[in-house]
What we know:
Elements: H1 2-30, E1 37-49, E2 55-71, E3 74-84, E4 87-100, E5 103-111, H2 132-136, E6 141-150, E7 156-163, E8 179-188, E9 191-200, E10 207-218, E11 221-232, E12 241-253, E13 261-271, E14 274-277, E15 286-290, E16 293-305, E17 311-323, E18 336-344
Antiparallel strand pairs: 1-2, 1-18, 2-3, 3-4, 4-5, 5-6, 6-7, 7-8, 8-9, 9-10, 10-11, 11-12, 12-13, 13-16, 14-15, 16-17, 17-18
Amino acid sequence: MKLLHLALVCASLAATGASAQTADSTAQSSKVSYLPHIHGVVRGRFEASTVESAYRFQVRNARLNVGGAIGPMVDYFLQADFCDRGKIKMLDAWIGLKPTKGLNLRVGQFRVPFGVNTFRAPNNYLFSNRSFLGKDCANYRAVGARVAYSLPTIPLTLEAGAFNPGTIGDHQPWHSTLTFASKATLSTHGFTASVSYLSHKPLTRRINYLDAALGWKGGRWRLDGEYTLEHPAGMGADGVSHAYLAQGEYAMPLRTKFFNQLSFEARFDGRTRAPEFSADPQSPQPCGWWEARRRITVGSTISHIRTANLQMHLRLDYEKYLYNSGVRPTAEAGDKAIVELVVTF
């Protein structure tokens, strides 16, 4: 009987140890999902110009991305747009490494760490069209490497990276220059503040950028402001241009059979006169100038929000462009009304 009792005790201890080991293994694996996550966004729209009595339909985006992890230290992300105004574009393809807590390394093709408005994806736009700052100033994806570190004691993230200066559509050419970018982001109590620096030589002259952004979100309100300074090297004060935006959103719940949120948006953005450079390496001087422009955008969005990823938005925007005297606006860069239907999943 004593031998039987001892055997039962040993078996019980072994089972307890195995159970604890299994629990630890399960807890560890639950932190990482090895299954790919698939998400996307489709944006269809109708635009009507009020300066040329013209209109058009567009599929602005049909974007699909796949991401996941193959372990606690390694993740990946792939993203393509299968209909960006009728064109197919490969946007992101990167591998991430997390060697220690707070430290993140990334290698591949992705957006350079600069600015805030440029990082807004189509699934969280406030307006149908991007701001001048988000579209025309340092709106770069590039091939390279980035390191990011989140401080353990304060909500501050520091990023820095080096990239090819060439197009993301061709990774084959060798380069004699690099693109450098850095960014610091502080987030606390609903506020997000960031400063960024970018140095880029896409054509014949290096261009340096500085950016500062401040945002706040609380309750039904969301407010954002951002400023970007663009300075081509060697041009002095004449080549400096400025881009800016101030925007806000008020969102309220709805109790209808399908729609559950109604929001109102407003934005003021602009860009001063800026030089335009030729791709010819023998022509370092500006080949033309972008005209100064300002714009007022107002809109409203009615939404069905099922989960954070599964949503539908019906958006109506109106854009009013403000130019200096003598400038004749076109349908592309003039007053227009936009009706857009967005589905994210």
